[in-house]
Every structure is written in structure tokens, then in C-alpha cells.
Amino acid sequence: MSRILYSLRGADGTAPFSPHCWKVVLALRHKGLDFEERPVGFTDIPKLENGFSKTVPILRDGDRLISDSFAIAIYLEQTYPDRPSLFSGEGGLATARFVEAWALSTLHPAVTRIAVKHIHDMLSPVDQAYFRESREARLGATLEEVVTGREAEIAAFPEKCTPIRNMLKFQPFIGGDRPLFADYIVFGAFQWAALTGNTGLLDPNDPVANWFERCLEFVEQG
Amino acid sequence: MSRILYSLRGADGTAPFSPHCWKVVLALRHKGLDFEERPVGFTDIPKLENGFSKTVPILRDGDRLISDSFAIAIYLEQTYPDRPSLFSGEGGLATARFVEAWALSTLHPAVTRIAVKHIHDMLSPVDQAYFRESREARLGATLEEVVTGREAEIAAFPEKCTPIRNMLKFQPFIGGDRPLFADYIVFGAFQWAALTGNTGLLDPNDPVANWFERCLEFVEQG
């Protein structure tokens, strides 16, 4: 196997949970490309591939190394043009940048505040120390202080999904009749929440919850 | 001239201000298509083209009539495929629906609350009566009550533009190197605010303000 995806996990035996790594998992499945996933802990990342990147995902494809989920999606699109498209044209690629900017500025801060203590508790001790220090500096508060706002964040979460919900009145995926990378960008945030034990953020009858299930089905059916 | 765009204006002599009509103005200019704009008052709309649509924009193109800004953009793309593309592929068209859903759920409610009294005051007396009744029912408050929250809405406005601002770190337009209909969808909301006397919502050095100016330049240069 020459294709390796380095992703992120908690302590031994926990599922890979990084939203950015999930985007790449779905992009690879969308393209129908085999890969071996190698989940590592936070503090292992600097040791990967001679310190190639400070963050995962990192994709090794033969002798090529690429980091950053969006850059990997562009690489896959350019390298495997005969496989199903991740963007369906230049306009789809450009506009996916807006979807990414929206997800990172709207969904990710919310999921961070909902899940940060759960994530901490999933990690190995050495990763816990790194995670606490870096996230508390970023958030300007201790993890325990952030947790006090968790219920309010959960209550506010469905309203933040309004643009997806309203888009779904016109079509089943952001990509139209079938998912594109723009869908996987948003999917990553929901999967991140779910795999760190934060399920039930949406009512099961919410069209957004149904869209999430459709994305899962699409990529599982290959 | 066989191409007519019915749009919206206030009292005689005021500029057309509807965000949805501006999207179509820019789409037509983008395609390099001549048209005659016929701005009407709110209460004139039901009389247009034998009551074809309850809302503007309405485009008459020869013997074809189309309403709804997104439907008009799709019509123009399909009818004039040899002109510059408004979507740059199927993915761009589909993802523009997400941009529309975001703009309608995030920017439009904000601009409504900032501009609603200004808009009312621009209208002819008969349109003022219609506008007050329909908007007060929709907003659940009198126009005067809504105005009391105007300064707070203005203060909160730049933060609502964060997804555009962050996208602009990667590319000059939502459409990538040049604007697409997705840009015009967002542009419409800013132009609506500006033409109803609500300038200065963004710092002139804000990248989002610079993007707005670039959109204007692009379509003015044809």
C-alpha cells in the first residue's frame, strides 16, 4: 500500500476524530482510492515524515507528501481526474473555499466549545498535557471554564446550521444531486462532534441530520 | 429592446435598491447582455406582465418570462452558454445555493433591521402603507421598534461577514480569480444597504469592503 493517511486519534483504541482528517477520508473514498489510515496522537505529529507538517491530515501518495485537507482535495482532483470529481468544475472548487470559511468560523468554534473537555479526556496523558496548554491559550479560558458554557452552545447549535437547512430545500447535497468536497468540509465538523461523544446536537428529524446520514451512506457505498 | 428587467424602486427618482434585482443586473452585465431596466414600486408588481409574479426581479427575454433571481441566473446560463459563465460548472451552481442560503439567513435579516425604516421613508405613500403592514407582520414589531435596535445591528454586522473575509485570504472572489453569481448573491445584500442610505457598515480597509468595490469594478467594466 503506497497511499497512507496520517490522521488523529485519542488514546489507544479510540476512533480517529479530527474533522480535517475526516474530510480527506471522505475525499479518498469519493475518488475510490485505497489507503491505509495511520492515526497518531497530537504529540506524534512532529515526528511524522521527518517533520513534514505540524498538523494532520498528511497524505503520502507514493513519493508525494501533502498536508492540509483542502490542498489534499485539490491534489486528488488534479492527480486523479478520471475518478469522480470532488468539485465538479472550477466554480465548485472556488466556492468550496467559502463553505470552508463558513464552517471554520461558525461550526468549528461551536463544536470546540461543546467537545473540548470530551476530546481532552479521550487523549493519552502526554497528549492531554499538550492539548490543555494549547487549547487553553487559544480559548483564553481553562477547559473547565469552557465546559460551563456547553449547554448554551448545544442549545444554539441548530440555529447555526440554518444555511445548510435552507439549502436542503433545493437539493439533497451542497454539491447538488450528490455530495462534493464542500459537503465533506461540513460533514467533518459533525463527525468530529459525534466521535468525541457529542451526539444529539440535532433533532433526528432535522433535514441537516438527514443530510449527514446521506453523506455517510454515499461514502460507505463507495 | 426585447430584454426587460422589472426591478424595484422607491418614490419617483430614487435608485433601484432590491438586493435580488441587483443580483440580476450584475448577472446580465456579466453575460454582456443589453437590457432595459424598468423599476416599479412595490404595489405595481402584481400588475406587471398580467400578474406573472408576486415579486421582482422579473426578466422578459423576448417571449420568455422568468422570475426569481436564482432561476433567472440559471436561465441566462442555459440560454447564453457561449457568454462568460455565471457558475463555472455544475459544482459552482450547486454550491451557489449554499451561498444564497447563507446570505439570506445571515446578511439579509441584519440589513433588514438596519435599513427597514430608511426603505420605508424612500417609498411613495401607497407603497409605504403596503410596506409597513407586510414588514411589521413579518418582523413582529413596528418599524419604529425595529429601529431602536439599529445601532446594535450595525455593530454586529462586520462579524457576520467573517466567512467572506476569511475566504478572501485565499482568492479575490467567491468565484476564485473572477466573480461568479455567488459573488453577486452576496453583493446584492451590500448594495441594498448602500442604496438605502446605510453606508459605512464596514471599515473602508476591511477586505470585504475591498471585495465589494472589486465586484462593482468588474461589472462596470463589462
UniProtKB/TrEMBL annotation, chains A, B:
Q: Which GO terms describe its molecular function?
A: glutathione transferase activity; maleylacetoacetate isomerase activity
Q: Where is the GST N-terminal domain?
A: 8-84
Q: Among the record's GO biological process terms, what is one?
A: glutathione metabolic process
Arranged from A to Z, the UniProt key words for this protein are: Transferase
Return the Pfam families for the record: GST_C_7, GST_N_3
Top-level taxon of the source organism: Bacteria
State the name under which the record lists this protein.
Glutathione S-transferase
This chain's source organism reads: Martelella radicis
